[in-house]
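Summary for the lay section of the report: proteins are chains of building blocks that fold into shapes. Here we show the chain for Carbohydrate ABC transporter membrane protein 2 (CUT1 family) and then a coded description of the shape we predicted for it.
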Amino acid sequence: MKWSRAKADTILVHLVLVLIGVVFVIPLLWMIFAAFDGNATLALQVPQHWTLGNFWAILSDPANQRSFVNGVIISLGQSVLVVIVAGLAAYPLSRYQLKYKRPFMYTILFSTSLPITAVMVPVYELFVFLHITDSIFWTTLFLAASGLPYAIWIMKNFMDSVPIELEEAAWTDGASAFSSLRKIVAPLMLPGISTVGIFTFAGSWGNFFVPFILIQTPSKLPASVTIFQFFGQYGSVEYGKLAAFSILYTIPAVVLYVLGQRYMSTGFQFGGATKG
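The coded shape description reads as follows.
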């Protein structure tokens, strides 16, 4: 009786997992089929005539090209700024005994749980007051600032696992703190740096809300916002182009994950990732 119940529980769990898998696979299949269908609809169907026309329409449109470039500029700029600033901020938190270190770390931890939507109204008012709305540069800076709490917390934990004895040996040879950080700590923290950089880029690449609020000029909008151009008036949607745009839109993040998978897997297994 116990064996039968255990077997029934196992079958039930597998059925639930299969159902969840189907729920995720169906939209992906629709996106692939619709992207190659010249007469795509909302229904999931295999194209009768496969075509690359939707992809050509997306790639040949200067507005779409510009939106992808804007997205790369914002995402890459945010990633670089976050990695550099978070590394510099995490170093003293990891290496020095500061008086208010613990409260500061708790503040950072609390900041990571604060949703971006909760601060967008005052942020928008600040941007309007300073006359810096509709700017890719200032939008990138705000995104970088919003990503710093998470990055500092992760960087600090990774940095804790780098033996300080290596730096002490370098200091004995006359190296400065910045030189030891750049030549000793940073190379050993490459898995952590890659993890923070990839997650920051992916989060910025898929961010719709912040650019939509802070940028008004259509030519400055990233791809995460311009994807809504395929939703026309009176409920009409260009499903084929929407699917093709979606596939092209996912390529940078997927490629980045594939290229950085080795560093990310090492990073998650790094001792510092689990230290407090």
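Put simply, here is one thing we learned. Confidence is low (pLDDT under 50) at residues 268-276.
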